[in-house]
Input
Amino acid sequence: MNIILFEQLPRESGGVHRLPRDDCRAQHMLRILKLQPGDAFSMGVVSGPSGQGRLEFSDSREVGFTWSPGGGIAEPHPAVLTVGCVRPICMKRILREAASLGVRELQICGTDLGEKSYFSASLWKDQKYRTHLLDGASQAGVTSIPEITLYPRLADALSEAKEGTKLVLDLADGAVPLSRIEQQKDYPLRLAVGSERGWSRKEQELFAREGWIPVTLGQRILRTETACASGTAVLLARFGLI
Output
């Protein structure tokens, strides 16, 4: 963790916030950062300010810290990643890296060629996916995390994508390299990445009707999580956002 994040600050008593010692963030302070009373560390509130914490004490039950808000919110990039739902272990990586790269929104879609059971995985229940977004944001040292929207069908997501630059990764004939795409500066920047078996012919036709431009990262067939991370990085760099 390059910043310790809290969904909300833990209880406060006597001006000190108290966190159970077995909490993963307390363990990170003590075991990884090896903080001693008086030591400072970076922390923040999700979707809120960042700042500097100070460890005040640790005992067998809890740790106590104070903090001074001092940093603003690092706003996410105007980028929307539309992804065909893949197996949970891969999706966890996609969530983490999208948060690290600063994607504004992730649209997770059921697709024609994707495994239908992935969409009903426990990852999507009770917002369990947030853990992986927080991991990514903590790595990047920011407090903002992407919004997550689930769509049973790709068509449902595309029907709401009326504005912005719309690009779909596809090895179809006529696709242009993403690194050379014309910089239209039309936000948000939308990038669609298929599930393991790619897009069906029907979905390719749907993208064409909706005005999406096919782009490539070269002729190598990439894993979905690799395409998401590398595609997002190339997109943000091409448009001068990183």
